[in-house]
Amino acid sequence: MASKLQQLQSKACQASQFIGKHGSSYYKQLLEKNKQYIQEPPTVEKCDHLAKQLFYTRLASSPSRNESFWKELDHVKSLWKNKQDLKVEDAGIAALFGLECFAWYCAGEIVGRGFTFTGYYV
């Protein structure tokens, strides 16, 4: 156990040194590669303007997303009406989807309690 901890510390130290050496060059390279997305001048007002643009653009796309939701819901309703024609694969996919939703719910509960499993602080 102690040797694994030492190996982990060694690898973390190596990663830290690598980031220390090459982190700034990677940062500069990343900014240079994506400079077409950078807004000039970088002010608070510009950020507020972009945030409002994003909000209202997403709000404007809401009707098409709403329409897609209702189409998918109609598809699920038709599958439920014809459940005798349902394949095992489709039922398996539905079960996995339900399991994934439950897992995300559990993860959210754990995060909401401060990463404790019992709800008590240890």
Automatic annotation (TrEMBL):
BP-aspect Gene Ontology terms: proton motive force-driven ATP synthesis
GO cellular component, as recorded: mitochondrial membrane; proton-transporting ATP synthase complex
Gene Ontology MF terms: proton transmembrane transporter activity
Record keywords: ATP synthesis, CF(0), Hydrogen ion transport, Ion transport, Membrane, Mitochondrion, Transport
InterPro entries listed in its UniProt record: ATP_synth_F0_gsu_mt
Source taxon at top rank: Eukaryota
Pfam family, one: ATP-synt_G
Keyword Phosphoprotein: no
Subcellular location: Mitochondrion membrane
Record-stated family: Belongs to the ATPase g subunit family.
Name under which the protein is recorded: Mitochondrial ATP synthase subunit G protein
